[in-house]
Every structure is written in structure tokens, then in C-alpha cells.
């Protein structure tokens, strides 16, 4: 077997080593354009988990690597002159050149032919090879040569960064944030050997340009870095080594394999995928790719099959790391957003930025940090919301009946130590007993918009389940405003009475407050029930059998939701707008009569009001289309009219799609503009959802994937927000609150599976300050005991 390796970086060398060990008779050649002692950059970091993988794959290299490591457990963050320390992080640093030398020595010892100072000769040079491992790095020529086959995509990021060294010792991984040239400059620094550190400096492109530095001005860079970070460097000399200011490209490839005649090619490491340096995983990915490639080849007779196995084994993991790295790099691109945070919260926000470290994970690493940050957060929230004179365990005492706040005999612990999800919250005169929200979820179970027993039991049990706020699904302001024939409506006294039955039940038996979401479907109306063909028009035959038929639609512009499928809506006239405003007001008055504590106006998901906000769906040429201000006009008119009829003591929230996930559609910046306008109009809370504007939306899903928009709106528009979307655990709720990404957190689907999500979360965290219905106290007590035992074992 003949294996050619292009590139003598970590991926190329390590794959050559592992394959030569398993196939001693194979001819394995590595070509590397640099000299053996030539390397860009200084040190790299590896986590404990990666080290364990290296030990299992090749003990001799692991021994040498481990012998050369600088190890640290702590992270120090310098922010506005304060140093914030945390511990339990477990990382090791090594000089990149030392790592390469260890790998080169081992490769030679095993009989791998290393040719340094040698440029790859291209496909001709590899004729006759069974396998070519293209480990030729971020600018891979192999990937470019067969780009039709590998189909790379590049997301070129905007921030500028430079990789430098410094002659100093550091007790911890160190971040420092300093202002200069109108921007924030951050230093990521770690020691890789006594007296030497890697320092990566990063800033926005605007600040970099304002600094007047040239991209390749190494001497100027060293001078500037020494000046900006003088207090951190304390006189240490900064070192350059081909230290040019670059912008990070996140590279992904649709395929990592190619066959050229009888020769198979495979991409490894940075050639296949890059991950932003802020999570320090590039070398880890490269080494772990090499392990997976070796395992696939060793475990199978056909190279073709082995490469397919390698790709399927690695693709998910590489994608997961890239996703975390992307989330992390977005944090660093937006440091300005966090600049007004208190140092404590800034530190938590930084540590939890990639969502891999959460509240509970951080507690495992550093329980003291989490305890003190939680105390700080509770105290800050108490003073911000005027809790000083309120019994935090009984914020709804006036309205509560038939419940008790303290389950069983256990005594509530001091409220300052409450996990953030159990902190009360206030909007106008409305107190919520905790921060968990049941997100609106259509039940498609109404006839003529009337709530029935299903709705009573469904909403009743969610209210019993402990969430502070329970949303009632999108309730439509007229029969034509419905999404489906099964949607709830509120245009008659009978409907208001039926809703009052639900609200009264919740108020009489639980601490939950109820919010009604009012909406108009617009161009997404007249469609089948959620569990039929969602967003598709009613099928005439079936509809007729049920006594239904499609109804005419209105929208901002006459654009159907799906061309040739959904009906073309009528572009709303001024008269239509006045009629809809009246309908919203009528519903709001009825909602107050039904006893709802709060209203939400639905301006998201492509429904009528959202269709005005997005340029994808609003092509009007009058004063209600065109500029962002014009597109906001009608939604704001509706908001103002509803605000005027809704009691001043009761809050109103607005749900928005913070991004359309469509090129040229609304983005997070538009969401901030919309939120600022809503705030000026008297909106109390923005419920930050995304997408569903148009079938062209391409959302990027992941854990808590919409929370970054909630964070942006909250911090940039200065309005309370509710985060929602793929939040599934109490740990995530606590993380989002403590790190300042939201004021409230909504869960939708998890509440379908577990109406008692909040009560269960309280038992899991052994938190006693929550109201179980008195009827259920024996069960509550047992659950607390079971959970506590589980915590102790
Ligand atoms: C600022 C910065 C900081 C980083 N910090 C870290 C960190 O802390 N931890 C971490 O794990 N990773 C870090 N990385 C990333 C890490 O350096 C890379 O992800 C890792 O080196 C990838 O290994 P590789 O073998 O795939 O590619 P490389 O290390 O880039 O190796 C590719 C090799 O191929 C050679 N080559 C390319 N083309 C040819 C050719 N035509 N002929 C011959 N030779 C060729 C190159 O000279 C190079 O030596 C950082 C990167 C940057 C930019
Ligand atoms: C069955 C179902 C019905 C929904 N109905 C509504 C609705 O009436 N109004 C609304 O704004 N969002 C609605 N949504 C969206 C949810 O409120 C929520 O934003 C979304 O499901 C993401 O949260 P999750 O990941 O916790 O499920 C619905 C979601 C589901 C699953």
C-alpha cells in the first residue's frame, strides 16, 4: 500500500504515524513545504479529553507531549480593571513547534519518509498511490483543485486577529479586554512553556482600520499591543512570527473524499473544516480526524469504504465543534454588546458563550463562582424590580388561593441562593412567581374559535405544573384571522366567557399568570390543522365534509405563502387596516373581561403583522412599505390602539421573528430597531422567536438557537426579553438568565411532554420556594426526597 500525505502539520504527521504503526509495510511519504523547525504561531491548547484520546491512540507520543505540557485549571478575565477568576477548566498548552518535532521524530522512528522544504507536486506526483491524505491546511490546494467534488463553502468572518507570543509566565488562561481606537481589543493568552505565552489579539475590522496599522506591519503591531495591553503584559516583550492580521474563514466541505482514477483522496484537519481559535479546537480536530481515519482504514479492506466510514464517523463531531466555535466567535465579534454588564455577569457570559459550559457544568468546575454569581444576580434583580418590600416567596400572595409555597416540611432556603429560574419577575403591576414560561402552542381543537374542555384541562394542567406564566395559544381576532378551522378565537362574549373559565381555574388554584396571544394569520390563514398538512390550504372535499371551506386572505402584499399552493392574499387597503385594528381592540377588551393578566400581540412567524415587518413579504409602495420605519407603521398602529384599551396596570408583550433566516430578509439588527420602536410605544417585553416568514427560511438549529437574538435585543434595545427555542432543561434556563441573555425563558414542546416541568425542576434542584398545589404535597415531598437522594449518590 502506498499512502502520500500532503502537509506536515498535526493532521498529516499524526495520520502518518498511526497508519505506519498498523501497516508497517506500507510506504508512507509526507511532503511539507516548510523546514522542520519552521512554524507559524507559538503554542496551542488541548483539553484533558483530547489528551485521553491521544493516549489511547499512541502512548509514546502522548508521553512526550504530556511531558512538555504547561497545565492550568484556571481562567482569569480582566474586565474594566477587575480580574475575575474561575477554576476547574483543565487545559494544557504546548509549543506548536515542540508538538510538531515530537510527531516528526516518532514518524521517522516508525519509518515514515518526511520530505521538508518540498512543495506538493499535484496529481501527477501521486499517480500510483492508493491513498492521498490532503492535510494541507486552511488554504488547501487539493481542496481548491477539486472544489467541484469537495464543494467547500467559506464563511469569511469580519473580526481581525493576529497570533503573537510574549515572554512572560501566566498563572491561568487569560483574557483581557481593553478599549482603543473606538473599539474593544481582546487578548486570549496562555502559557505553553516556562516564560513563554501565546497571545492572540482580536478586534473589529473597524477598530483595526481606525488604528492605522497595516495588515503585515509586525513591528507596529508589537508596539501597539504592548501599549494597549501594557497593564496585562507588565513589561513582557511581545514577539512576532509571520504575525499578520487575518480574518477567520469558517470552512466546511460537502464531501471530504474524491477518487482520481485508482487514487483516493481524503481531506483532514483544517483542509476539511476550520473551527475558530476562541474555542481552541483546531489541533484537537486535526488529531482526532487522524485517529478516526486510521481506525476506519484498519477496520475495513476497501479504502473507498474506509473513507466513507471515516467521513460518517467524523462529520457530526466536526459539525458540532464548528457550531460551538461559530457561536463563540459571534460573542467575540459583539463584545461591545456586553460592555455595560457588571464584571460578574460579563465573566459568566464569556464562560458560557459557546453553550458548552452551562450553569450546572460551571457549578461542577467552580461551585464558588456559581454560588456567588447567583447571589449577585438575585440581589441585582431584587433591587432592579423593587423587590425590597415584597416577600419573594409570595409575590402573588394577593391572588393566590388553595396553594402553598413550601412543599412539605422543608424550609425555603435563603432567596438569594435561588436558582435563577425561580426568581420572581415583574412587568408593570404583574408579578410572576418564577421565570419559566409555557410558550404559546396552538391546539387546533376549537370549533368556531370556542375554547372547550380540552383547553381547560390543557391550560389548567400547565398552570398547575408550576410555570410562572402560561401563554394561551394564538387566538384569532376574527373568523378570517384564523390559521386553521381549529384555532381559538376571541370575537364574541361567549368566547370570552369560555376563556374566563380557564383563567378563573388557574387563578383560583395556582400561582401561574395567564397571557393571551392575539393574532391574525394574514397570508398563512385558511390552512389545515397542525397535524394534517401544515400551512397548506384546506382540501375542498374534506373541508366540505366538515362543513368548512377556504376563506379569503389579506396580507401586506399580494404574495402567496407558497406559489401555486396557497391562495393569493389581497393587499390590505386602509379600510382593511382600520377593520383589523378594531378587531384587535375588541379582542383585547374581551380578554380583559375574561381576566387575562397579560396580552401578547403576534408579530412573528409570517402572520399578518409580521408580513408588514419583513421586506420579504412587504413590497408595498405606500407609506406602509419600503423603509423599516414604514414597515413598522401598521404594526405600531395596532399596538397603540390595543395599548389604549388594555388596562395600564397590565403588561403587553410582542412576539417577533428576530431574523427571517433569508438573505435580504430581517436580521438581528432589524429586530433591535423593531424592539426600540415597540419599547417607545409602551411594549413591556419582546418575545424573541425567529423565522417562519416564508418557506425560503433556512434556520440554523441547535440548543437554545434563538437565545442569541434575545440577548441582542435585550442588551441593544434595553427592553426585557423572553428567550425561546430548543430550550429543554432547567440548566439551560438558569444559564440563559444568569448570563443576561433573557429575563424570562419559554419552553413549548417540553411542556407538551411534561406539564410539570417547573415543579420537577424545583425538586431536581431541591428548591422549596415554589407553590405545589396543597392537594399534591405528599407527592411533592416524596419527589424532593427521591431527587435529593439522587443528588447525593
Ligand atoms: C491564531 C490561531 C490560534 C490557534 N490556536 C489554536 C489552539 O490554541 N489550539 C488548537 O488546537 N488550534 C489552534 N489553532 C488552529 C490550529 O493551528 C490548526 O487548526 C491546526 O494546526 C490544523 O492542523 P492541520 O494539520 O490540519 O493544518 P496545519 O497545521 O495548517 O498544517 C498544514 C501543513 O501543510 C503544509 N502545506 C500546505 N500546502 C502545502 C503544499 N502544497 N505542499 C507542501 N506542504 C503544504 C503547510 O505548510 C502546513 O505545515 C489556531 C490557529 C490560529 C490561526
Ligand atoms: C404544537 C405547536 C404549536 C405552536 N403554536 C404557536 C402559537 O400558537 N403561537 C406562537 O407564537 N408560536 C407557536 N408555536 C411555537 C412555540 O411557541 C415555540 O416558539 C417553538 O415551538 C419553539 O420552542 P420549543 O423549542 O420549546 O418547542 C407552536 C409550537 C408548537 C410545537
Question: Would you write up a description of this structure?
Answer:
It is a single chain. The protein has 793 residues and is an alpha/beta fold. 38% of the residues lie in helices and 21% in strands. The chain has 26 helices and 32 strands. The strands form seven sheets. Strands 5, 6, 10, 11, 12, 13, 14 and 15 form an eight-stranded mixed beta sheet that branches. Strands 21-22-24-27-28-29-30-31 form an eight-stranded parallel barrel, surrounded by seven helices. Strands 8-2-1-9-17-16 form a six-stranded mixed beta sheet, covered by helices on one side. A hairpin with a 2-residue loop joins strand 11 (173-180) and strand 12. Residues 392-413 have low confidence and may be disordered. Bound molecules: flavin-adenine dinucleotide and flavin mononucleotide. Flavin mononucleotide binds at residues 439-442, 473-474, 517, 530, 602, 655, 689, 724-727, 747-750.
Helical amount among residues, as a percent range? 25-40%
Q: Compute the separation of the termini in Å.
A: 53 Å
What would the principal axes of the Cα set say about the shape?
globular
Class from helix and strand fractions: alpha/beta
The ligands bound in this entry are:
flavin-adenine dinucleotide, flavin mononucleotide
Percent in strands: 15-25%
The biggest beta sheet, please? Answer: 8 strands, mixed
Radius of gyration over C-alpha positions, nearest whole angstrom? 30 Å
**How many E-type strands?**
32
* Unreliably modeled segments: 392-413
The average pLDDT value, as a whole number, equals 93
Number of helical segments with 4 or more residues: 26
